[in-house]
Design brief:
8 helices, globular, seven-stranded mixed β-sheet, 805 residues, disordered N terminus, 30% strand, six-stranded mixed β-sheet
Length: 805
């Protein structure tokens, strides 16, 4: 099993390391951060060899082409004598991002298989059993003959000693080379500057900048067969999530090309036209060509040779079974494609995924009749078809949209799919993307329908799991979703809202300010108090010590006036520089806006970034020690996180305490669709501690005045059913208002096709008469000013409360 290359950049099937187009060579005294020699073979042309020449393979995992002009590959015998010299092979040209570069060396009299076309050619007769290869910036021969001396030569970008080589990196050379075996870093591509640990012996797999490979020696020589080999795609896919042939070479795997991907992670899918009878074993597989454009067309009947690899997009996701470093023989073209498998409510099970008690599900036998993720896994790489699917997640900036194949699965009032429990996952969700880059992707909102049939291949990625790579898209039916406008508060009602404005700072474009302001002035009908999350300092991500937000808030409040709203005043406590998390340099914080024509803010000095606000018991109720203030800001619950902002307001002479929150994010949690089931929610621990701090503070207010009107609100980054919200509401201190809505309206955020709630408003028992609303203006729409919907509560502060002062 291999934890393979990240796909944030294009990588080849055996890429070694990132090469920077402007990087300078570094001594191998520290692991190379630029270039790594990925494979070395000195047995070419020897007796018993398959390949006719020696070779050295380089790689580029960077995001820009790397110019090798003026570089060289140099060879030294394994046990150099006084007269031994480094032999130089000059390099020219460049290697594309994600590509490899092949240097052919001397040919022998043995072997039957030629290397793929080399990118550079030398004449060095390398030893099959012992030697040293160096990648050098320059073509002047090296002079060092010990590991220590070579480590001091800054021209050496990377060095590999194999066999019994004296000059090597680390504790010992890489061993195991022979006439039939090279040493390579494999798919892990480790570089710890220890050749013995980083490189292992195995079958040769030379690849050039065009992505061509001649396969190599040993069992399963890919070669260039014209007849199918013994392995079929269902043998590769196997009956679990991990191929039983992972890491092995395969020869002449037959299939029909069903789809081609020419950008991003390049390659193509093939499918066996003669499937077996086992529903667990998939009949499709992705052939990864790296930086090379696939040289096949849909409908080609092909034989594919290469190496089987389980590619993990990240450490916690499931894997994608692939054939890498492929050599392809096209037997014929224009063949009919296998009929697509229909995915619908009847064919996708109701249970989501088997449990492994928190461990990996990789080795569990697939049960596609019982679990939705097993069903999808059994179809990985296979042609599938969906029809008339409801959109549950709007089109993203990356050209993808979430739909459901189960129209009756937990529908929301406005067309989404509600996420309501850790144990009741929505099994019909699937992400749709398009392989046709020549046509615009449909711009869809939640509740629209992708009408007709959409056909493509089933794939997997880290951003949502299983997805349909469409070759034919259905037609978008617009259901004309409209942004909501809440009612205006009555004269006796105090309207309090929460809105995450998504990293707003004074350097943002005016259009963002205007759209957010429209949401406050029009859609929220100008609340009396707006608790904002994600207000940054005035220069945003610039890290120069700036912590104030005056310019940001002036632009925002001016835009609200321009949109027809009131002239809001504001209060906040500036954080210590770099102490509140969020975007580096942004100094994110919570802010109160309030309409001074409707509500009074009680200013009481003493609040700052590190001083804890407390409840002060007075004869007629309770006040704050400082207003605005922060809740226990030095507690480790708030380390590198936003601190709650507390303010004391008066409306119609009645005190109201508002607590603006922005709890720690869900970053680091394992994905719902991942390899570990049930997934660990590691970030939850911190949020529960934060909720406990807020709950303790609220109870201190209620201890002084049990009828105190407290409104706690904001982006809690957790669900109504989560331990976080349960802790926040514990002992009856607060009530989450989201649970007072009809079930199909309990959401304010859409993630991976799930309508869910991260934002909340909670009230104390002293708030006995209220009207609560989630105002849907962002989360369900492709064009959005924020990814959160705001919420509002209208409170009758004069409603009778037992013990009211």
């Amino acid at each position: 099993m291999h934890i393979s290359r990240p796909r944030s950049v294009l990588l080849a099937g055996a890429v070694a390391v990132t090469l920077s187009a402007t990087a300078l060579p570094a001594a191998f005294a520290a692991p190379s951060s630029t270039a790594v020699i990925s494979e070395v073979y000195g047995g070419g042309g020897n007796s018993g060899a398959t390949l006719t020449r020696d070779f050295v393979e380089l790689a580029n995992a960077g995001s820009a082409a790397y110019d090798l002009s003026g570089f060289s590959v140099q060879y030294l015998p394994g046990t150099p004598s006084a007269g031994s010299l480094w032999q130089v092979s000059a390099l020219t040209g460049s290697v594309a991002p994600g590509g490899r570069y092949l240097v052919a060396e001397a040919a022998g009299t043995g072997g039957t298989v030629a290397l793929p076309t080399p990118d550079a050619t030398g004449t060095v007769a390398m030893s099959a059993t012992s030697g040293t290869i160096a990648l050098v910036s320059g073509t002047t021969p090296l002079t060092c003959k010990t590991a220590a001396d070579c480590a001091a030569d800054t021209r050496i970008v990377d060095l590999v000693g194999y066999g019994s080589a004296v000059v090597r990196e680390g504790s010992g050379p890489a061993t195991g080379t022979s006439a039939t075996a090279s040493v390579s870093r494999g798919t892990s591509l480790a570089d710890t500057d220890d050749n013995a640990a980083d490189l292992t012996a195995g079958a040769t797999t030379p690849v050039n900048t065009a992505g061509e490979t001649s396969g190599g020696s040993g069992p399963g020589d890919p070669g260039n067969p014209t007849e199918p080999g013994p392995v079929r795609i269902h043998d590769i896919q196997g009956t679990t999530r991990v191929s039983p042939l992972d890491g092995q070479s395969v020869t002449g795997v037959p299939g029909v090309v069903t789809a081609v991907r020419t950008s991003g992670s390049r390659g193509f899918w093939i499918q066996d036209a003669a499937p077996d009878a086992d529903a667990r074993t998939g009949e499709g597989v992705f052939v990864y060509t790296g930086s090379a454009a696939p040289a096949v067309a849909v409908g080609d009947a092909v034989l594919v040779s290469g190496k089987v690899d389980e590619y993990y997009p990240s450490a916690t996701t499931q894997s994608i079974t692939e054939i890498t470093a492929p050599r392809v023989t096209v037997l014929s073209s224009g063949n009919a494609l296998p009929a697509p498998v229909v995915l619908d409510a009847a064919s996708v099970p109701g249970a989501y995924v088997p449990s492994a008690g928190g461990g990996s599900i990789d080795a569990l036998p697939l049960d596609p009749a019982t679990y939705a993720l097993d069903r999808y896994e059994s179809l990985e790489g296979t042609r599938v078809e969906i029809a008339d699917t409801r959109v549950t997640g709007a089109t993203t900036a990356y050209g993808e949209v979430w739909v459901t194949v189960k129209p009756n699965e937990n529908p929301t009032l406005r067309g989404g799919t509600l996420y309501s429990s850790y144990t009741d996952q929505n099994t019909g969700r699937i992400k749709v993307m398009s392989l046709d880059t020549t046509r615009p992707f449909p711009v869809a909102n939640v509740g629209d329908v992708l009408s007709g049939t959409t056909t493509g291949v089933l794939d997997y990625d880290s951003f949502g799991g299983y997805n349909l790579q469409a070759t034919e898209l259905g037609t978008l039916t617009d259901h004309h979703l409209r942004r909501e406008v809440t009612r205006k508060q009555k004269g006796k009602e105090l309207a309090v809202a929460t809105y995450n404005v998504e990293n707003l700072d004074a350097l943002d474009e005016q259009a963002k300010f205007d759209t957010l302001a429209q949401g406050v002035a029009v859609n929220l009908s100008s609340p009396d108090i707006v608790s904002l999350e994600e207000i940054q300092d005035d220069n945003g991500a610039v890290s120069d010590g700036t912590v104030g937000s005056e310019a940001t808030l002036k632009r925002f409040t001016d835009a609200i006036v321009a949109a027809g709203g009131p002239q809001y005043a504001w209060r906040y406590i500036a954080p210590e520089d770099g102490k509140d998390g969020g975007e580096p340099g942004g100094n994110i914080r919570n802010v109160f806006l309030f309409n001074p024509e409707r509500v009074d803010f009680v200013d009481r000095p003493g609040g700052d970034a590190t001083t804890a606000v407390t409840a002060v018991d007075i004869r007629k109720g309770v006040t704050l020690s400082a207003s605005p203030g922060r809740i226990n800001p030095t507690s480790d619950a708030w380390d590198d996180s936003r601190k709650p902002l507390v303010g004391e307001f008066r409306f119609h002479g009645k005190p109201v305490f508002v607590i603006g929150n922005h709890f720690a994010s869900k970053g680091g949690d394992q994905p719902l669709h991942g390899r570990y089931q049930e997934p660990t929610r590691s970030s939850e621990t911190k949020r529960v501690k934060q909720a406990a701090e807020v709950n303790t503070f609220v109870k201190s207010l209620l201890a002084a005045d049990k009828s105190a009107r407290v409104i706690a609100l904001g982006d809690l980054n957790d669900f109504a059913f989560s331990p976080t919200v349960q802790k926040l509401a514990s002992d009856g201190a607060l009530k989450p208002l989201i649970t007072t809505l009809p079930r199909n309206e309990q959401y304010s955020y859409v993630y991976e096709g799930n309508s869910q709630t991260l934002d909340h408003i909670l009230t104390s028992p002293g708030v006995c008469r209220f009207d609560y609303d989630v105002v849907h203006i962002n989360a369900e729409f492709a064009d959005q000013a924020s990814d959160h919907d705001p919420q509002i509560v209208r409170v009758d502060v004069n409603a009778a409360v037992h013990g009211d002062h």
